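Record pair follows.
FIRST:
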Amino acid sequence: MKIARLDNDQLVLTDGAAPLRGIGAFLILFGALWLFAGSRGAALTAVPLAIGTLAALGGFLMILLPGRVTAAFDKPGRTLVITRRSLRGRTQDEVELSKIATVEAEPSTGSRGLTTWRVSVILQNGARVPLTTWFSNSPGHAAAAKAAREFLSLPEPAAPAPSAAALTAARPIGKGILAAFGVMCAVFAALGLWTLAREARLLDVARPTAATVLSARTEMKRSSGRNASVTYLPVVSYRYEVDGREYISTRVTPLNESRSGRWAADLIARYPTNSTVTAWYDPEHPEQAFLLHEWSLLPLFFIAFPLVILAFLVTISRRWERARETPRP
């Protein structure tokens, strides 16, 4: 919650659930990474697909559901107008300023001792009107509640509101979880770097030789599990010679990738039976060869996405630390 406007006649507080949306964006990126891994026919494909689907769905909900809240305290009109905008539409509530007893930063303590807050208006009859449906650890809640009390010349709440020091000393939401995600991202980035190095070596040392295509087909690969996914591996059998010795290989891409059926079908169509093509073999292991001398985007994806997510985590962590260290009135 932040103060958008403050003068003698009007105080406007706004909350767009920025921390929730930020975490939601992270979950979408994290889920996309797992979904991509599952679609590529990785081992135990059902696991990354399930994780990716749940993470992405949770991320979309965290971005779309909270909406935006504006609370306008208007002295000339003697009313508090609370406007909420969300997917469900726009709603507006009005409260007479004379019925407000105080404004406080309402705490909520979770099972792990994590305390979060939201700004609530306490009426003369004891009713509580929260400005937002969600809680967060933003240090702006205490400042917003204090500004509202001073604007309306109201007393402190019966239960003391959390001080700015208490708010800024709060443990950031999900910091341990984000750290765990960071470790996962580092693992994926390391896997991507290893795969990229392996592919770079193959493309660098490979030597061309003429090859004759014997047959071409696509091979369906189905993962195990209830939510099994299907990918297709292009399989082209071709014969080639190295130093007078004949070899037969079936690999098409350097990393022997499997993807969609359309991709695999388009690829094998480039290698008709009995045609002469160029095969690329490893001089140290001439029995290992491939046909498509091109870079794959798969290693780059495994490197780029984790780096983007890690950059996001570092940004969020720094914002939390600055919020904790910044003195509040």
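SECOND:
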Amino acid sequence: MAATPNLLASVTLFDGPPQELASLVPDETKVKGRVLASWQLTPNPGRQYWLACGYSGTRITLARALPKDLRTCSVTYDPAVTLDGLPSIERIACK
């Protein structure tokens, strides 16, 4: 029996720990058949931004606090290819 890989299926940014449910809405643009979701991370003393990743074939979500000096995060999706009903993720970049 071959193991099915659990692929990255979703990315969510949060203002604070994910259990607080303060997910951030990205700005989205379409470029050459791809969707670029981007978040501007404004310094917020006393709070930290978090990144949560969900994986196909499981309900497990991995999350971690982002470094405080990051100012932007973006995710590039290919809407022509889906995974668990969501557009596939091609790239994640945070600066």
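COMMENT: The CA atoms of residues 33 and 78 lie 7 Å apart.
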